[in-house]
Design a protein that fits this description.
Layout lengths: L4 H10 L6 E4 L6 H12 L3 E5 L16 H12 L8 E5 L10 H8 L4 E5 L3 H4 L12 E4 L5 H8 L2 H8 L3 H6 L1 H14 L3 H10 L2 H22 L5 H16 L7 H4 L5 H13 L3 E7 L10 E10 L2 H7 L4 H5 L9 H13 L7
Parallel strand pairs: 1-4, 1-5, 2-3, 3-4
Antiparallel strand pairs: 6-7
Helix pairs in contact: 9-15, 10-11, 11-15, 12-14
Amino acid sequence: MKRKIYKQLLKWKENKDRKPLMLLGARQVGKTWIMQHFGKKEYKNVAYINCDDEPRMKQLFELDYTIDRILITIQAITGVRITPATLIIMDEIQELYRGLASLKYFCENAREYHVAVAGSLLGLSLHQGESYPVGKVNTLEMYPMTFEEFLWARGFKQRMDLLQHGMWDVVKSLRTLYIQHLREYYLVGGMPEAVNKFIETNDANAVREVQEEIIRAYEKDISKHAPKEQVVRINQVWNSIPSQLAKENKKFIYGVVKQGARAKDYELAIQWLIDAGLVYKISRVKTLGLPLKIHEDISAFKLYLLDCGLLGAMSKTPPALLLLPNNDNTGKCDFTENFVCCQLESLRQIPI
């Protein structure tokens, strides 16, 4: 499965001023897979540890940040001989006490080592008082598979090349085909497990089962990791997003979340979902002009799900409604809007 972030990982590896790499992204977008795949392709030796499943890692950084001791311990746990040419992957790094802080010392005292870390809820850890190694890490964000990556996975690279090279006469002649691919993407979305299931089975119902399982995992994360006093409000905001997008609202309406709801009551809930990578918050601009940021109206915004396939699962939209042309007035405007937002967000890679 080809992912565009691979080029950024290569750039990181080849950078002479390389720092420890922090890979951010929501659960199930493919962070673990891409790190292991990259390590297998580009390194002779990979020392991979899932910090959530490995109890021997729990106290690794509690004593001190002595790099020699840390490397010897990782070598003992993984059974992989650690050299500067080894890729060290610490997955779910947020589960380790002082794990993020350790990256500062890898940067300052062992820059020659290739160290990469990731975590499903790493974005939350960075906003909840966890010591952040400012200026001591390279950062990349990973998103669900884009429409481009979806076509690559389907074996339709040439069709994507036609779009990228602006061969519009040919694209126009294949218009029906491209529209069908887009409908399929609206259904499947870009979560790698859902894409794989679609390719393997060509079964929309099987894809929907995968998506519903991912949604349940997200909801468990909310219950487990969110502040207890915010869990109900986070769930209310999360569950309101499909209906918010289906309405012709020009901004997020708190009354859709709960009758009489006020902005100040839900600010923390919305921020939690943003930090977890589950939603994108897009503010309205008062005037079209560059830079857009100075024209931002922070009081008016919309929330979008990280994946249009999950939007279909959450809204219980029948797969046939997404795959077949509509002959009535029930369009796919909400899916199109969410699709455009997700494709644009995927372009916002944080440069190394």
